[in-house]
Amino acid sequence: MIFSQTKKLNNGVEIPMLGLGVFLMPEQGVTLEAVRYALRVGYRHLDTASIYENEGEVGEGIKQSGVLREEIFLTTKLWNDDMRKGRAEAAFEESLKRLGTDYVDLYLLHWPVAGKFIESWKVLESLYKQKRIRAIGVSNFHKHHMEALLKEAEIVPAVNQIERHPLLSQKELIEYCTHQGIAVEAYSPLGSTGAPILSEETVVELARKYDRTPAQIVLKWNIEQGVIVIPKSTHKERILSNGQLDFMLRGEDIKMLDALNENKRIMADPENFNF
Ligand SMILES: NC(=O)c1ccc[n+]([C@@H]2O[C@H](COP(=O)([O-])OP(=O)(O)OC[C@H]3O[C@@H](n4cnc5c(N)ncnc54)[C@H](OP(=O)(O)O)[C@@H]3O)[C@@H](O)[C@H]2O)c1
């Protein structure tokens, strides 16, 4: 049974706490197969982006799965160069076309592109008001980016999607977002390529204690703290087991995982990115 709990966003839309991420699936057909399989076993939330260059396969996977579009929570993101070039609306239309759908559930500003994210947000607000998007949000926003956005925004972002795993627990940012009514999604929850978090000693010990996989422990650590997770895998057995989260971590074990924090980023720092 795949974990099916949802969270209510600040506009009332329900988002599944677990989704399939599809970053870095470059070989042809891999995304299609992963999406089709994930939907078949019960996932109802997919996270892609125009820069992943696989929106077409995501759309095709949805179609081939036989699952109704309205049962699926679909996220995609506006890429940085499209913000720089002022082509947010055109990029959104292109994403929809590739995805083979006429709306997305969540559209995110992928990175806080300096001097551009506020005007891009205005475009998202307009698309949201036209009901082309069910919820709008941001990604890789630090507190100061969010404060700058909130000064100008008419609509408070529904989501901030950030790097988060036990070595980068982002406690303060999560508290800030929660206080503003902004849901947090953890990307790279396993530490991204090669899943380095899964060989952390504490994670391995807890996996033994609960008779679960290290990935299940880390994913549940997020969910039990109200954080949405979007692990990526191209392997069927992992897609399946990553969604089998029908257990509870004890409070003291959550604290042990919290204590691993080193503020260590694996992905780029939103303060200083060059793409
Ligand atoms: N907003 C952003 O800027 C941003 C940035 C990065 C990622 N994301 C989103 O977040 C999603 C997840 O992040 P991610 O793809 O960077 O990394 P991740 O989900 O933390 O880790 C993916 C890696 O873990 C492996 N893996 C998955 N399940 C496993 C398991 N049960 N046991 C052992 N290894 C396992 C995968 O290998 P296999 O595929 O070989 O199974 C892959 O190497 C992305 O796909 C994307 O949708 C967003």
Structure description:
- By secondary structure, this protein is an alpha/beta fold.
- It has one domain: Alpha-Beta Barrel (TIM Barrel), CATH 3.20.20.
- It contains eleven helices and ten strands.
- The strands form two sheets. The protein has an eight-stranded parallel beta sheet. It has a two-stranded antiparallel ribbon with strand order 1-2.
- Helix 5 links the parallel strand 6 and strand 7.
- It is globular, with a radius of gyration of 18 Å.
- It starts with 5 loop residues before the first strand and ends in a 17-residue tail after the last helix.
- The mean pLDDT is 98.
- The protein binds NADP nicotinamide-adenine-dinucleotide phosphate.
- NADP nicotinamide-adenine-dinucleotide phosphate binds next to helix 10.
Query: What global shape is seen?
Result: globular
Q: Give me the Rg, rounded.
A: 18 Å
Helix content: 25-40%
* Average pLDDT, all residues: 98
CATH class: Alpha Beta
- Count of folded domains: 1
Strand tally: 10
Order of secondary-structure elements = EEEHEHEHHEHEHEHEHHEHH
Strands side by side in the biggest sheet: 3-4-5-6-7-8-9-10
CATH superfamily: NADP-dependent oxidoreductase domain
Largest sheet features = 8 strands, parallel
Class computed from helices, strands and strand pairing: alpha/beta
Q: Measure the end-to-end span.
A: 39 Å
Oligomer category: single chain
Bound small molecules, which ones? NADP nicotinamide-adenine-dinucleotide phosphate
CATH architecture: Alpha-Beta Barrel
Question: Would you identify the regions where 5 or more consecutive residues have pLDDT less than 50?
Answer: none
